[in-house]
Amino acid sequence: MKFYSVRHLTKFVYERPVSESVMETRMHPRSDSNQRCLQFSLSVSPRCRVFSYRDHLGNNVQHFNIPGDHSQLVIIAESLVEQQSLAFVPHFLAPSAWAELDALVSEGDYWEMLLPSEFAVPSAALLGLAKELDVTRRDDPLMLVREINKRLYEYFRYVPRSTRVDSPIDEAITSREGVCQDFAHTMIALVRTLGIPCRYVSGYLYQRASDVGAGHDQSLPDATHAWVEAFLPHLGWVGFDPTNNLLTHDRHIRTALGRDYADVPPTHGMYRGRTSSELYVAVQVDAFDELPALDREMPISEEWSVMVEKAQEPPPPASPLLEIQQMQQQQSREHRAPLHGDGMTQGARLLG
Fold first, then answer.
1. What pTM did the predictor assign?
2. SS3 184
3. Mean pLDDT in the chain?
4. What is the rounded average pLDDT of the residues 20-32?
5. What is the tens place of the pLDDT at every residue in 270-328?
6. What is the distance in angstroms between the CA of the first residue and the CA of the last residue of the chain?
7. 139 and 78 part of one domain
8. What is the DSSP letter of 101?
9. Is 39 a domain residue?
10. Which single residue of 131, 220, 246, 318 could bond 352 by disulfide (Cβ 3.0 to 4.6 Å)?
């Protein structure tokens, strides 16, 4: 058994003040399978009331509205998670596994995780890659998905900020480089062509000090992470991390499940005003062998404390000329524009 504390800071800075922000977040770790979220808190600046609900896939969603003028928005999520060891996953299944999988799929409700979705599309580039990697039904489902996981790790070069939040998988496939969002979307699209239900998982990956910079994990230690889960006979949903060529284990902390990234961005919302925004993201994951005292605050590193303090500092005041321009523009017209806020991409492309 392991325990992890997760701290996730997101900051939006607006070039000109906005008059309202409406936001949803998916940063609250799930409690299912081998994982249990023991504590969760979400703090927002400017201060506001935060509401919560669960979506149709069981993801925990927080949402809030800030109705006054503000030049920045700071969101800090803090979690304490318990992880049990995952069940052993064999290297292969029986020869009858394909027939057993088809029977399970025909009797169950897996269509959402079988059909193309916004970012997991069987494009010409994807089908060309499937041919190059020989992604066809053979061996058994588990052995083939293991092979796809390894082949994508070898095919792509992990390059932070090489793609955008809305980049189609064709960009990563053509350039042969991307971040874990691209690894995951490509694998989901490939696995679905085989008739195997496959879903996207967002969350965090704890990296031991010995692994950082040692070539064991490609993903960044101060970022969110993404991987996939495939539905297999006798095993249920099994996690695969193509970015790091891993089967998931207790270092993978799950926050949300979906068809692809479009279902589960860590932050998603709208703001009222005509301006541009910049996004800053920081993540810190710490591990404990014993359960920390729940009635006391978790230990906070000096580095993280300084980061939070700086993030909450107000932005420098605008010049008088800029303020006049802002007033004129806001008086003339206001409109709604999408807030592309997600802890994985945009601005700070820190997806691990």
1. 0.86
2. helix
3. 87
4. 97
5. 999 999 989 999 999 999 999 887 666 666 666 766 667 677 677 666 554 554 444 44
6. 24
7. no
8. H
9. yes
10. 220
Residue type (1 letter), 263: D
> What's the token pair of residue 181?
């969002």
Residues 272 and 332 in one domain: yes
SS3 content of the chain, % helix, strand, coil (to 5): 25, 35, 40
Q: For residues 34 and 49, state if they share a domain.
A: yes
Residue 92 lies in a domain: no
Other beta carbons within 10 angstroms of residue 270's beta carbon come to 16
Are 154 and 285 part of one and the same domain? no
pLDDT in tens, 324-342: 444 444 443 333 334 433 3
**Helix/strand/coil for 186:** helix
Instruction: Give the Cα separation of 277 and 340 in Å (integer).
Output: 9
Give me the mean pLDDT over the 188-196 stretch: 98
Domain boundary among 234, 263, 292: 263
Question: For the chain, what is the domain count?
Answer: 2
The whole domain housing 181 covers 97-263
Q: Cα–chain-centroid distance for residue 71? A: 26
86-90, 122-126, 151-155, 206-210: least confidently modelled range? 206-210
Whole-number Å distance between alpha carbons of 306 and 303: 5
251, two tokens? 């270092």
Q: Is residue 254 assigned to a domain?
A: yes
Q: Take residue 138 and report the two structure tokens written for it.
A: 């053979």
For the purposes of burial, counting CB atoms within 10 Å of the CB of 9, is it exposed (0-12), middle (13-18) or buried (19 or more)? buried
Same domain, residue pair 259 and 156: yes
Burial of 6 by CB count in 10 Å (0-12 exposed, 13-18 middle, 19+ buried)?
buried
Q: Is 190 exposed, middle or buried (0-12, 13-18, 19+ CB in 10 A)?
A: buried
Mean of the pLDDT values across residues 6-22? 95
Among residues 263, 278, 306, which one ends one of the domains? 263
Residue 146 within a domain: yes
Which whole number is the average pLDDT over 175-202?
97
DSSP 341: -
CATH number of the domain to which 254 belongs: 3.10.620.30
Cβ atoms within 10 Å of 49's Cβ, excluding its own: 8
Higher pLDDT: 319 or 127? It is 127
Looking at the fold, whether 159 and 235 belong to one and the same domain comes out as yes
Query: Which residues are within 8 A (CB) of 179 and not within 5 positions of it... i.e. 6 or more apart?
Result: 158, 159, 160, 161, 162, 163, 243, 344, 345, 349, 351, 352
